[in-house]
Amino acid sequence: MSQRESSFGSRTRRSHAVALLSLLLAAMLGAGGSPDAAAQGARASRPRRVAASRPSPPSAAVESDALVERATAAACLERELDPRASVPIDVMQARPPLPSRHPEVVDGAHRAGRLLPVARLLAAEALGGLMREHRVAPAAERAALRRLGEVRRVRVDVELRDNASVFYADPRTIRFGTIFLAGLRSDEGLLSVLAHELVHAADGARGGLSPLFRRVGLRAERVGRVGKISARRAEELTCDLVGVRAVRLYVARNPSDEPQARRASRAVGHNCVELDETDSAHLSPRQTLRALLALDPAFAAEITGDAEVETAAPLNHTAPPPRPAARPRKPARPSR
Q1: I need a surface site. Which of 109, 153, 164, 257 has the fewest CB within 10 A?
Q2: Residue 307 in contact with residue 298, Cβ under 8 Å?
């Protein structure tokens, strides 16, 4: 077919179409209708294709809140079912003093002494990773880890009751109240408190870790929904966070027949309180629990069991960044 024939043929079809359209309009006008009504009727006679509405994906904040809520419930449920669960803080506070020779105190002191060398290693690894995450100066990191490594003793102190402490006059000793020693009935629960106190020792009398505490506190304000956090509360929360990460390392490297979720929850089970009170130095136990789960989502996933369904979340925060090859150096002298 030539180009001329093609053009002519198209023009002929258009003229026929115009004639048919004129007849149709005349019929509609004779019936009292309108072109718009006819068009609507034509559209209504055809099946309409409705696009399926897709729900918008939840934001990261909503997902994080949901994980924190599930992990909080799971941790406190595990505490109720666990025969070696820690006693909640509010219950410990209401108990009468225990003598240092009480069998539960003696057992707790023995376990604390046994776990202290392990706690030093794991707390140093967890704290070192956290300092690198928050870009603490290398000199401050080295000084803090040196102070941490100098802690050598655990001592029972009846007057501390349901607390543990490091005194700057004796920074090589962690002191435990007798009620606290009796209330922390698992290695994981006791290890989390040992690591907590080791961070206080690493901070030192001059507050060498203040920048780290401030940065962790600011992050907790963003993700933990716990409001404004003072400098002192940020310090206590950071110590708790190192305790949680030390327990994660301990559980990963010391497998047992117990469920991972139960062992992980022991790091925070003492915060499952009914009477949720606070003071100037600490967030309330429930606020602390929520902030810790928000700060470490991998820990929350271990408590809920999500980490077991997929793959166990690695402790990337403990791995130092790769360093370029360097010339051989002299071996460091052992610390005294």
Answers
A1: 257
A2: yes
